[in-house]
């Protein structure tokens, strides 16, 4: 849409003339801490299933509740503007976690160490760059296109803040509400629901994972006539909550992709390959000897990678008109704001942004750091690509967030496009081979995080626009929140990887391979649970070929013989340690895709036939009128991850179908019904499930190294004594506690007639 010079007349909840406490220390600190918590839980989710959901509403509800509790013990009541600052600072963690989770593990998959300095640099630089690039476009995206860009989650968050407004804020807004009014009771109930969901998700996960009271994954493998077909689900509260929030359509489309992989492609490969007497590349063993997971790893993953890449590119192409209009509007808005700055000495409080000169200085400073930061392996061309793609996709992300919401914004598609263009440019320049892997991935990672944070920033600014916040103070808050979250998410990412790392004895995987240890300089010791049984120091060797054993990182003795293959916790292949204990791995589906793109283009190593099969899956879907990105992500992910998301989507469909028949919903259009569902009690409980379950998963993973004996003891007890954990009926019995939290979600989501 062309730039409209006449913005709509929107009256904010708090007028521009009102002066209320806003950017206070307590609001900023609380938002920053909550951002770290939700950033950590989002990182856990993106490593498991490649998805996150917006943290804005949960952070807002928690802030409202904590400030309310502080008032009861003698503190000052908060204002709606303080609550807005808290949710703004707290929302940055989720977007940075997504960007880090879909890109940084690819460095390890490509054979490089996941260095803490590199991860933190990428998080900090990408997060700050996205916010700064969004600031000049605020008026265009948020104010002038208010009617066109709804920012559904930002609008819903504003409604939550207004519903819980304190007496001071209501007086400033010209409202009067009794403390015992229905609105006040509803605000207290909403807080109780999300905190109750948080506690229940946390308790469920501890009982399930730590105490082994029931299995965390149920799976059923079929025999003929659907030989090697399988269906299963990870029965966790966080995936159930994700499905409820993203809704039935996207959830079912994702699960449909998993059904294609596990109930069509894998059985079909087994059917045609069982009689073969030689391995079929890129597989290294006979198909008849492969398990369903082996077939997936050898063939279906490449099909899924091609499908996701094609789906991301098609999504990008479909967005090109939006990109162009957003760029034109953004540039026009910059010029317009500059003109106003010279004509108006004192702009209204609600129109004040960080001055453009500081935005430009900040962007140039970030680009300079990117260029000369040694851990990024960057060059001038790479820095310029970050500047161009960063601005381009920050604009796209902001606009798409306005149209479909933050949780549905295809950030990974933009990262795929950035990597493709970057790698193709490197190919033309003759920059191929391993030394350019990190450069290309650093470009993609920083752009991905910048685009993700730009969408989140625009959503927060929309919330502030509706409630009457000062944009400049919101921008300061999200800069602080982004910086703090970026600094803490790097160590958490490394700790999650370390907790799932298995040191596989080299005699098991590469028995006859040796190397020249005198040429190796890096050394390391075992980390995590296995370190207790081996305190030796080894040299590190990155094996780049598959001769005699798999490629990867090996620990080498002084005489050149191999001691261990280091199988990482993220995207690792070995799920059992030498002592027999089980290890939970993180699939990191989108990071694997990034590594395939880089290696495939720069080294010509992709099995292109399988990749093109995946591309055709996306093309057929688009020809049939189905948006392919969600389906193709489902093709790539394990069905055990997408099926519980579908269950959450089905519950949302049942709840909405029933609620939409109530009198208070009569006369609402489809979009208004959707918005009402997005801020309903069911959505709050689902948000609590996500936060509690994911946070418990992180704590359990981080403490794995110090609780090995306890974990082993619980495993032995459960396998010997617990029918919910082991035995012929354990899969069916384990569904019972999961069914209980599903029923609770349905019951809480149902509204009363008003």
UniProtKB/TrEMBL annotation:
InterPro entries in the cross-refs: Oligopep_transpt (IPR004814), OPT (IPR004813), YSL-like (IPR045035)
Primary site of residence: membrane
Ranges that cross the membrane: 27-47, 53-70, 91-112, 118-137, 191-211, 246-265, 298-317, 354-373, 380-398, 410-429, 436-456, 476-494, 608-629, 635-655, 683-704, 724-748
Keywords for this protein: Membrane, Transmembrane, Transmembrane helix, Transport
Membrane topology: Multi-pass membrane protein
Source organism superkingdom: Bacteria
Subcellular location as annotated: Membrane
Name of this protein: Oligopeptide transporter, OPT family
Origin species: Massilia pinisoli
């Amino acid at each position: 849409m062309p730039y409209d010079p006449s913005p709509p007349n929107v009256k904010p909840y708090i007028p521009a003339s009102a002066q209320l406490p806003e950017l206070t220390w307590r609001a900023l600190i609380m938002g920053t801490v909550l951002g770290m918590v939700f950033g950590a839980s989002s990182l856990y989710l993106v490593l498991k299933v490649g998805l996150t959901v917006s943290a804005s509403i949960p952070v807002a509800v928690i802030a409202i509740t904590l400030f309310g509790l502080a008032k009861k013990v003698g503190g000052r009541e908060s204002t709606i503007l303080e609550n807005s600052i808290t949710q703004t600072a707290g929302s940055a963690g989720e977007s940075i976690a997504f960007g880090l989770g879909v890109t940084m593990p690819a460095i390890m998959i490509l054979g490089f160490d996941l260095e803490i300095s590199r991860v933190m640099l990428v998080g900090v630089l990408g997060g700050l760059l996205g916010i700064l690039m969004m600031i000049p476009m605020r008026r265009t995206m948020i104010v002038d296109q208010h009617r066109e860009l709804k920012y559904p989650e930002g609008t819903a968050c504003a409604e939550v803040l207004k519903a819980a407004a304190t007496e001071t804020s209501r007086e400033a807004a010209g409202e009067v509400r009794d403390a015992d009014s229905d609105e006040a009771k509803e605000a207290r109930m909403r807080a109780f629901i999300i905190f109750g969901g948080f506690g229940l998700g946390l308790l469920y996960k501890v009982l399930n994972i730590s105490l082994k009271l029931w299995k965390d994954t149920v799976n059923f493998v079929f025999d003929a006539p659907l030989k090697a077909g399988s269906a299963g689900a990870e029965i966790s509260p966080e995936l159930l909550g994700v499905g409820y929030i993203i809704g039935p359509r996207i959830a079912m489309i994702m699960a449909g992709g998993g059904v294609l992989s596990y109930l069509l492609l894998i059985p079909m490969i087994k059917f045609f390959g069982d009689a073969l007497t030689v391995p079929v590349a890129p597989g290294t063993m006979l198909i008849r000897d492969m398990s369903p997971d082996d077939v997936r790893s050898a063939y279906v993953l490449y099909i899924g990678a091609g499908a996701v890449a094609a789906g991301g590119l098609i999504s990008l192409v479909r967005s090109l008109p939006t990109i162009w209009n957003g760029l034109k509007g953004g540039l026009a808005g910059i010029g317009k704001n500059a003109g106003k700055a010279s004509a108006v000495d004192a702009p209204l409080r609600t129109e004040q942004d960080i001055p453009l000169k500081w935005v430009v200085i900040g962007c140039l400073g970030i680009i300079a750091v990117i260029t000369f930061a040694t851990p990024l392996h960057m060059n001038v061309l790479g820095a310029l690509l970050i500047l161009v793609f960063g601005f381009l996709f920050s604009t796209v992300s902001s606009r798409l967030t306005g149209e479909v919401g933050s949780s549905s914004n295809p950030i990974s598609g933009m990262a795929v496009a950035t990597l493709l263009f970057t790698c193709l440019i490197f190919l033309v320049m003759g920059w191929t081979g391993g030394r350019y892997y990190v450069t290309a991935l650093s470009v993609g990672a920083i752009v991905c995080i910048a685009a993700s944070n730009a969408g989140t920033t625009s959503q927060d600014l929309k919330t502030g626009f509706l409630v009457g916040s000062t944009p400049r103070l919101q921008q300061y808050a999200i800069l602080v929140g982004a910086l703090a979250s970026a600094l803490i998410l790097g160590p958490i990412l490394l700790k999650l990887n370390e907790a799932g790392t298995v040191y596989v004895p080299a005699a098991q995987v590469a028995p006859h391979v040796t190397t020249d240890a005198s040429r190796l300089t890096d050394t390391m010791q075992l980390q995590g649970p296995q370190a207790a049984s081996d305190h030796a120091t080894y040299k590190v060797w990155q094996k780049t070929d598959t001769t005699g054993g798999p490629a990867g990182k090996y620990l080498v003795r002084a005489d050149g013989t191999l001691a261990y293959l280091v199988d990482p916790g993220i995207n690792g292949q070995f799920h059992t340690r030498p002592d027999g204990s089980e290890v939970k791995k993180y699939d990191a589906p989108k990071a694997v895709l990034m590594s395939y793109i880089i290696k495939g283009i720069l080294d010509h190593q992709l099995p292109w036939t399988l990749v093109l099969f995946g591309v055709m899956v996306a093309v057929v879907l688009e020809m049939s009128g189905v948006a392919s990105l969600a389906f193709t992500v489902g093709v790539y992910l394990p069905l055990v991850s997408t099926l519980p998301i579908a269950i959450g989507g089905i519950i949302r469909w049942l709840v909405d179908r029933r609620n939409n028949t109530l009198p208070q919903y009569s006369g609402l259009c489809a979009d208004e019904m959707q918005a009402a569902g997005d801020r309903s009690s069911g959505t709050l409980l689902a948000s609590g499930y996500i936060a509690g379950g994911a946070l418990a998963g992180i704590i359990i993973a981080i403490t794995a190294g110090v609780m090995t004996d306890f974990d082993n003891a619980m495993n032995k007890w459960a396998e010997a004594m617990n029918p919910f954990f082991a035995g012929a009926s354990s899969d069916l019995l384990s569904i019972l506690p999961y069914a209980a939290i599903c029923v609770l979600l349905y019951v809480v989501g149902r509204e009363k007639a008003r």
